């Protein structure tokens, strides 16, 4: 929308912008970052709370260790991700407000 001039400005996730700039270097001359907030904590991955505990543990373990496998590290590198790390809700305080429904 910025490039076709249907919008003058927008907010964009910095990871998305970085990936687009990597894939399309010509955008560097067409876009200007006015300001940036951060660094912000990484986005948490979430799963359905009704999944069995062993499945949730397995998913977590695989995500946290996938960077150790060269095949998966190559996949992560494509998205400029080095690895997944555990994140707690406490790390997000001050940046977001979450209302927990019980």
Describe this structure in words.
The chain is mostly helical and 102 residues long. The protein folds into 2 domains: 1-36, no CATH class; 47-102, no CATH class. It has helices spanning 14-23, 53-65, 70-78. The termini are far apart. The relative contact order is 0.12. The mean pLDDT is 85.
What's the mean pLDDT score?
85
Kindly give the count of domains.
2
| Biggest sheet descriptor | none
Task: Report the β-strand fraction as a percent range.
Answer: under 5%
Shape: elongated
Q: How much is the radius of gyration in Å?
A: 18 Å
Helix proportion: 25-40%
Figure out the total of helices. Answer: 3
Number of strands: 0
The chain-level structural class is mainly alpha
Unreliable spans: none
Q: What's the short story on this structure?
A:
The protein is mostly helical and 102 residues long. It has three helices and no strands. The chain folds into two domains: 1-36, no CATH class; 47-102, no CATH class.
Tags for this model:
single chain; 102 residues; mainly alpha; 2 domains; 3 helices
Helix and strand topology:
Blueprint: H1 14-23, H2 53-65, H3 70-78
């Amino acid at each position: 929308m910025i490039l076709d001039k249907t919008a003058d400005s927008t907010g964009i996730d910095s990871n998305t912008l970085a990936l687009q700039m990597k894939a399309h270097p010509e955008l560097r001359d067409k876009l200007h970052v006015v300001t940036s907030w951060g660094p912000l904590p990484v986005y948490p991955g979430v799963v359905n709370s009704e999944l069995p505990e062993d499945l949730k543990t397995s998913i977590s373990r695989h995500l946290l260790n996938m960077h150790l496998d060269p095949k998966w590290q190559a996949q992560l590198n494509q998205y400029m991700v080095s690895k997944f790390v555990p994140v707690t809700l406490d790390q997000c305080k001050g940046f977001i407000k979450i209302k927990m429904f019980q």
